[in-house]
Amino acid sequence: MQKLAILTLVLALAAAKFVDTHASLAQIDANPFGNVVLSAIKAHLQAQTPANEVNMLLNGVAAGLQQDQNDHDHAFELDTTTNNRIVEDLEKEILYHQNQISSNTQLRDDTIEALAVSEEDIRVTISDIATNEQTYAREEATRNQQHETFVAKVAAIDDVIDAIDDAAKLIQHLSLGASFVQVKSKYETVHKRLTDNTSHSQLLQPVVVALTELATHGVNQKALTKIAQLLSEIRQQLVQEKAVKTDVEDRQAAHWAEFSAHLSNEHTRLVERKAQLEVQIQEQKDTIEDAQSWIEFHTLELENSEERLAGQQAWYAVQSEIYETQTAERAAQNEIVDRLQEHISEKLSTTAQFISKRN
User: Fold this and answer.
1) Rg of the chain over all Cα atoms, to the nearest angstrom
2) Which interval of the chain is the signal sequence (predicted)?
3) Phi-psi region of 245 (alpha: psi -120 to 50; beta: other; left: phi over 0)
4) How many percent of the chain have pLDDT more than 70?
5) Is the dihedral of CA 345, 346, 352, 357 positive or negative?
6) CB of 107 within 8 A of CB of 287?
7) Which residues, in sequence order, are CB contacts of 250 under 8 Å at separation 6+?
8) In this structure, are residues 146 and 253 in contact, taking their beta carbons and an 8 Å threshold?
9) Per-residue DSSP letter, 18
């Protein structure tokens, strides 16, 4: 409103060139500044000072107005420079906090995704460890059962071979001339061992039958030779069977040694992988927590910087308003001085008459 009034006054003063002197001076007198200047001029006129001193007075006023404007221009220039620097710094702060919020938000979101992958990896790894341990336990039990079966079967074969060897010695004694009566006790022991055997009963059946016939029909060299040959063949079969089973056992043992080593190595790898994932997951959780803390920190700092920027801009707007208002006021005052100088120079008597009649 004040600026509008000043602008109106300026326009009115400009239009005053086309109205009479009294009307122009009345307009000037109605202005507080104009009233003060007219009072000063009246004092000079009453003291009957020369007209040039009145002009000097007005020139002094005009010079004072110009100096005030120069000072005000300089002060406003300093304010503008300071404001621009502060605004630039605050805008840099705002940009910095915005970038930090953006980068930490991206870091947090990326790490949340990575954490989900890590948690799935450790879930799979834990499952793989359990599967590995179950496989080891199952295969170890199978291998132990295989070995126990091998030991039992080899023991059975050795028992049969031992019985076959006893039978061969018995036949040898008979072949060398011993009577059946002499070896009867040994015969009965051997016959019982062969008869009671269950692991190789089918293989031993011909020997059992031959020995039974030997006891029933009497001893003869042909029967002894046949039995000896039969025992030799059976023994050879048993030795071959034992060799086959031993070979199978050796291959199974070698396979288990290799497979168990593989399972153990895989178990070690999985356990180490689980430990690495646990550390990684904790680090990712820490990263997410830190990023969130920084987001919150920079959000607060951003709000603070934006508030300071708004405050600075509001302050500068006020300073600009004051500068423009005071500049307009001085322009109006300079216009008053110019009009008075014009009236005094061109219409001194009329001006003096008007001034003398003022209260």
Assistant:
1) 63
2) 1-16
3) alpha
4) 80
5) negative
6) yes
7) none
8) no
9) G
